[in-house]
Design goal:
67% helix; rod-shaped; Alpha-Beta Plaits; 2 domains; five-stranded mixed sheet; two-stranded antiparallel ribbon
Length: 438
């Protein structure tokens, strides 16, 4: 069964009033609901109405979607188009209800049958428009334009018939038509509003002529002229006001989008600057500045926690000779290779930073000095196995390192100096080793 058959089936049509009423009752009064444009509606009347419309649209889309997985099936224009048709259908009930009330009060120039046929016409037209929006694969701008022409033509037919039904009270049709003019003025442009004004005026004149010539209804030329003139002036005013409001909304939207784009670009630039401020450009590791900040936070945490932490300062052996003999490009390759190896062997919360030149600093939280010495020698052996190809030669890399334990109450400079002293002790005693206080 296709989407149109399921929507039009007796079972589904019977469910619509109860579903809409139930949804409105559950959401009354004034609960915060999100409209299709992302804004919140707190009105105790519009809130349940818009929420019920959204529920109904989602309910029918489940039946009519040709391929829910297809990206076109989730076209962002579909939901507003469906909501527009529903709002138009609700708007048709205003003049229809007035005509029904007039008939209940004894005004029956044509009887009940024409009014019933008119309502059937309204239902069929809106059901057709609703189904077309559901069944089309993609809601293009051209489709929206054709849909607008179709709705306008249907409205003009309904407006003409409604004017004839009201007989000598036909001026009420002009008042109800202002509601349509206001709707078009808010969602359309001034051209559409002008077309609607001219079309409605001509349709009204045609209905008055038919009422006088074919049905013999009384026509007061002065009154009809005044009513029609008032309608034209008010509809033109609504069109101008709506066009101005639309331009203001579009300008505000463009300004908002421009500000959002600028804010996103500034945020991206700030993120890049922040990342560059704490990252070493060559190796991609933390730089010395950010390393000191992390060490300060780690030492502050030790003052409130009974834990241990150890710092290692390492220096690549004979790095100056590598630069002098093979060039700075080879030296940079050595630094990158060592940094990559050290980073691959560290834990997620360990600190690894390029301290300066060929020096690197590593901090191990929750690690005592003896345990850090074992880890440091493991890293030393991993680096010792590295080889760099340069000018038909293979460079073997080693490093010397010194360890120092982070202690509460001891300044960060003193701790780093202690690690640096043990580093030079490792250099002095032969390189390629890790030294620390026994």
């Amino acid at each position: 069964m296709n989407g149109l058959q399921q929507i039009c089936s007796e079972r589904n049509l019977a469910r619509l009033p109860s579903m809409l009423c139930k949804s409105a009752i559950l959401k009354y009064p004034g609960n915060r609901r999100i409209n299709s444009n992302g804004s919140q509606c707190n009105s105790p009347i519009l809130g349940p109405l818009m929420s019920s419309m959204s529920d109904f649209i989602r309910w029918t889309e489940r039946f009519a979607a040709v391929d829910p997985q297809h990206p076109d099936a989730r076209d962002v224009r579909r939901h507003p188009a469906l909501a527009s048709v529903l709002m138009a259908f609700i708007g048709y009930h205003v003049p229809y209800s007035l005509a029904a009330i007039a008939m209940l009060m004894g005004f029956k120039p044509f009887g009940v049958a024409p009014l019933a046929y008119l309502y059937l016409f309204i239902v069929i037209i809106n059901l057709l428009a609703y189904t077309l929006i559901l069944r089309v694969r993609r809601i293009s701008q051209r489709f929206i334009y054709r849909q607008t022409i179709f709705q306008l033509a249907a409205w003009l037919v309904m407006f003409t018939l409604y004017t004839l039904l009201l007989a000598e009270h036909r001026a009420v049709a002009l008042v109800c038509a202002l509601m349509t003019c206001a709707f078009v003025a808010l969602i359309g442009n001034w051209k559409e509003g002008l077309v609607l004004c001219v079309s409605a005026s001509l349709s009204y004149l045609f209905a008055v002529a038919v009422a006088y010539d074919r049905f013999g209804q009384p026509v007061d030329v002065v009154s009809e002229t005044l009513f029609l003139g008032a309608f034209i002036l008010v509809s033109l005013y609504l069109t101008m006001m709506g066009s101005t409001m639309r331009l203001s909304r579009d300008k505000a939207r463009q300004t908002k989008l421009s500000l959002q784009k600028t804010q996103a670009e500034l945020s991206q630039v700030m993120s890049q600057l922040e990342r560059r401020a704490r990252t070493d450009e060559l190796t991609g590791l933390h730089n010395r500045r950010h390393g000191r900040e992390v060490l300060g936070a780690l030492q502050l945490a030790l003052e409130t926690q009974s834990s241990a932490a150890t710092v290692m300062l390492l220096d690549i052996d004979k790095f100056k000779a590598i630069n002098d003999n093979y060039g700075h490009d080879t030296g940079d390759a050595v630094l990158k290779t060592v940094a990559k190896t050290l980073a691959s062997l560290k834990r997620d919360d360990d600190l690894l930073a390029r301290w300066g030149g060929e020096e690197f600093l590593i901090a191990w939280p929750r690690t005592t000095l003896p345990a850090a010495a074992i880890i440091a020698n493991r890293l030393r052996h991993a680096v010792e196995e590295l080889e760099i190809d340069a000018d038909s030669a293979r460079i073997h890399i080693t490093f010397s390192a010194g360890l120092a334990e982070l202690k509460p109450g001891v300044s960060l400079n003193e701790i780093i100096k202690t690690a640096d002293d043990w580093l030079y002790e490792a250099k002095r005693t032969g390189r390629n080793r890790v030294c620390h206080q026994s």
